[in-house]
Sequence to fold (229 residues):
Amino acid sequence: MTPMKHIYEGKTKTVYELENGNYLLKFKDDATGTDGVFDPGSNTVALSIEGLGKGGLKLTAHFFAMLASNGVRTHFVRADFDAAEMEVLPATSFGDGVEVICRFKAAGSFVRRYGGYAETGMELDALVEVTLKDDAREDPPITKDTLAMLGILSNGEYESLKAQTQKISRLLKAELERFGCDLYDLKLEFGRNGGEVILIDEISAGNMRVFKDGRSLEPLELASIVTGG
Fold:
């Protein structure tokens, strides 16, 4: 897979446009966090972990294959693990991009915001939250009505996004339970492809909080547990 045109330089991936109209995602070894500590909810790069790009891609490919077998449509085409590259279908984002968080247990920013009512580890029933991708404004949460009012996505698209998020998240939670892992929360991204809302970006340890034996797993640990390294 040969990159043709540089499109975007992200925190954890570089995006290229391919000659066939698809896109190429080049995974980096960078991870988000604060003060050198990994945090999937952060919007800043805090550390670099050797092999993280390849490990994240292996995990992403594993999850995309599992989702495809359960009838979930994504942008995934194929992966080259040695090059840490993934070919994907083109998709347009909602506005400048939205992120969808699905929570099974309270953690991170949820507890910081709602600590008067929630504590870390509190059970949540696939609770869906949406935030805008906006580093300058620290990715503000946004409601369904506001998304529609601002023309970012329609009410119908929101309902599709929410239903898909809960289905996908429950499938991922069940898959991780096969390996003795407990999914607390994860962050997904969707886009439009041919008028349809589909899952895009990656599904890796950098986008989720996963615990095993009461301990939070580091990104490469989770990749190794699920994919064998």
